[in-house]
Amino acid sequence: MDGTISLKQSIIKEIEFNFENCAISENHIIELLGYDADTVPEPVLETIGFILNELPNKVRLQSGYKIFNPKKVKLSGDSFTIDNRTFNCGKIIYSSLKNSETIGFLISSIGEEIENWSKYFMDNNEILKGYLIDKVASELVEQLADRTESLLEKELGIIELKATNRYSPGYCGWSVADQQNLFSLIPEKFCGVSVNDNSMMIPIKSVSAVIGVGKNVEKKTMNVQFAK
Amino acid sequence: MNEILQQLSLCIEKGRVNKDSNYPADMKGMPGAVELTQQALSEGTLAQDILNIGFLPGMKIVGDKFKDGKIFLPEVLISARAMSSAMELLKPYFQSGEINYKGKVIMGTVAGDLHDIGKNIVKMVLEGGGWQVVDLGINVNAEKIIDAINTNSAKVVGLSALLTTTMQNMKEIVRKIKSETKDVLVVIGGAPVTKAFADSINADGYFHDPQGMLDYLNKKMSK
Question: Using the beta-carbon criterion (under 8 Å), do A131 and B116 form an inter-chain contact?
């Protein structure tokens, strides 16, 4: 850390998004399932319509981030340390973070009700509905994380800083067990999310990630192979 | 009789539930799986034949198409819905013992893990393949599984995990099942699970799709 960053202290922000601005559409879900408009079976189309109609009442879109005071952050040897907690993020992620001046955490969640909604249909032998709700929920929470990431980038831009891609524990060779460290550095139930002893986030439809922040970091185009 | 069962099989393959359904469009107005099952039963067809000749071949075609990448999962679920609607009519025959399941499978998502979508889909495919599934739900420990094996005299266990952390709990569960029961097959699955991991923890099988597990169990049973 050379201390050049404009951040003098940690910044923490929680945001509640409106569902109206979500880009989740019928066509998008059809594509996500592998179909196109001509091949999607009628019951799937009907179920998607039903889900999209009810969806705004079944989710709560909470997001937030914490950018750490650069003085608390150290990057070296395929890992980074914040407040004496070491994150063994591995080679792939470290290579992207290495020029960061500080680290940010991002949390997004769409709440618990949608899980219960999916489970209700699963338990009542309507597996197609239960499955499609789960698919839509997964997509929605990723979109929420994308929106939060964009917002963060915009705010960093004001103070002439940039952000790397976001990286989540459990991907790119980074152990999901580091969720424990991550959640120990943010307030309890930040954005309504907690982590259990097995490093699983509750609600399940939540995203946690780290982002490198600095003047000389860059966002890379990810390919699926790389992300796995 | 065979013609009805062939039509039944086609209804299940195509996901046609009943005569009031608009799906699929090219079968509109025709009887569905429910009516054909009723008709077969009223004409004196053995319930076991309805299962073996009507239900199972339809689901097998769907499962194979999914395994070969020719259809997507929602289509399997549409077929399963048709089958489970008609299966309601066969329930009394299972209870009376007139129809025999191929066997019992104890299933659960391992301790610490709360994901159940994958497990539920596997369960549905196994049931569609003629197996009885005892679903223990999520966050299931070894003791509960062993208890279920003993209570149900089951010879197959299916374990699911969706996280690399909870996947590790499979190791202890498999060890306990193997040490405290006899001749029980343990098969595992879930996003982070691999064949190498299954081998390393002494599990009997790993499958990345439900049809793979069904084929494996059917093959084991036929030996």
Answer: no
Q: Which of A43, A119, A204 sits opposite B23 (nearest CB)?
A: A43
Model confidence pTM above 0.95: no
Asked if B23's CB is within 8 angstroms of A42's CB, the reply is yes
Task: Determine the Cα–Cα distance for residues B46 and A85; give it in Å rounded to an integer.
Answer: 67
Relative orientation angle of helices B33-42 and B2-14, to the nearest 10 degrees: 160
Q: Which domain holds residue B127?
A: 104-222
How do the pLDDT tens digits run along chain A, 228 residues long? 443 446 778 999 999 998 887 778 999 999 999 999 899 999 999 999 999 999 999 999 999 999 999 999 999 999 999 999 999 999 999 999 999 999 999 999 999 999 999 999 998 889 999 999 999 999 999 999 999 999 999 999 999 999 999 999 988 889 999 999 999 999 999 999 999 998 999 999 999 999 999 999 999 876 544 333
Q: Are residues B203 and B152 in the same domain?
A: yes
Chain A residues within 8 A of B116 when measuring between CB atoms:
119, 122
Degrees, nearest 5: CA angle B152-B153-B154: 85
What is the Cα gyration radius of chain B?
18
Q: What is the CA radius of gyration of chain A?
A: 19
Task: Tell me the residue range of the domain where A42 lies.
Answer: 11-227
CB of A49 within 8 Å of a chain B CB? The answer is no
Distance from A145 to chain B by nearest Cα, in Å? 20
Q: Is residue B189 located within the same domain as residue B83?
A: no
Q: Which of A164, A130, A199, A98 is nearest to B169 (CA)?
A: A199
What's A138's domain CATH number? 3.40.109.40
